[in-house]
# Entry
Amino acid sequence: MNFSKEEAFDLLKTLVGIRSYPGEEAIAQQACANWLENCGIKTELQTTHNGQPNVLAHIKNGDGPSLLLNGHMDTVLAAEGWVCDPWQGQREGDIFYALGAADMKSGVAANMLAARELARNKHLWRGTLIFSSVTDEEAYSYGAHALVDGGLKADGCIITEPHFEAACIGGPGKILVDVAVTGKAAHGFRPWEGINAGVEAARFAAGVDAAVPALKHPQAPSSQAVLGIHAGSQLYVVTLPEKASVSVTRLTVPGETREQILGKMRGFTDSLHSPAQFEFSVKDPYYTPWAFDDAAHPFRRAFDEAYRATQGRAATYDYIGGITDGNVIAGEGGIPCIVFGPHGDKFHQCQEWVDLASIPAVADVVAETALRFLQKL
# Structure
């Protein structure tokens, strides 16, 4: 299919011109829905936890597998130091600077263009093509959770996040553990009569990384860090703190579960023989690690063939270094995912940019993958 770089730029410029911070996506999402409707694609707006709508379109064309094309419409907040208006952007040849240009309104635009052409060419495929533009990926992934919690099912999913040189087929998860420590208050001049929750929390914080180290994985990154220790009152009182807390963040690897991690942390506190009590809870956002390593899967084969046919070379694969909606769609929803999107850089920084020529290239790979995958299995 033939995709125009200039049409892709015009569509992207429209999308980046609408501010869409997490919790403010409605206007941009309506613009996306209107564009699809004008192309003859029926859409629906799905309410999410923060009241902002996902845009969904189901293009049904007989029996066959289903393919989800997913992207997020929200952006991070504009950093200081932009040399141009971050919502109007600045074009220099094929490079376009704007907030969300790469992460990831260009990917949403690529999916919009691919969906339109596939809807126009139903004689070439069978099955169901699902388009989704979701909210809140940069915060709590409320949009992706609404997809999964709403029962959306698909046999494969392409997430057009900006990963152009290598498609991503897995990634780490994330867990934020809150450790509540309860001691016993006492006069600060008679500490032996109490249990200092601050000291016991510090003992935990000082040893948890060695006792419960981040697991190693051949492709997925992992790490663990204590983010904070809080104890005592903000007011000056000569009283032993009876309450304290420790926050621990951890990148998890495929196969690792929250139950395993909490169990190991509880085992570590037992080994401290502390007189204090420790209670563990997991705070939002929590993300499940994911992996799609099945090279023989029909979806993987379709992507391989489409990439080679359109780009003239074999696709390469990697694991993503952070969190995406793949953690929800694949990790929780069980839908095989490939993350592949336009080429850009400076994500979450000023002067974020995208290579405009890569948008039609991505749309081409997406559409060709759909043509090869959406056949009767």
In short: The chain has a mean pLDDT of 97. The radius of gyration is 24 Å. The chain is about 30% helix and 25% strand.
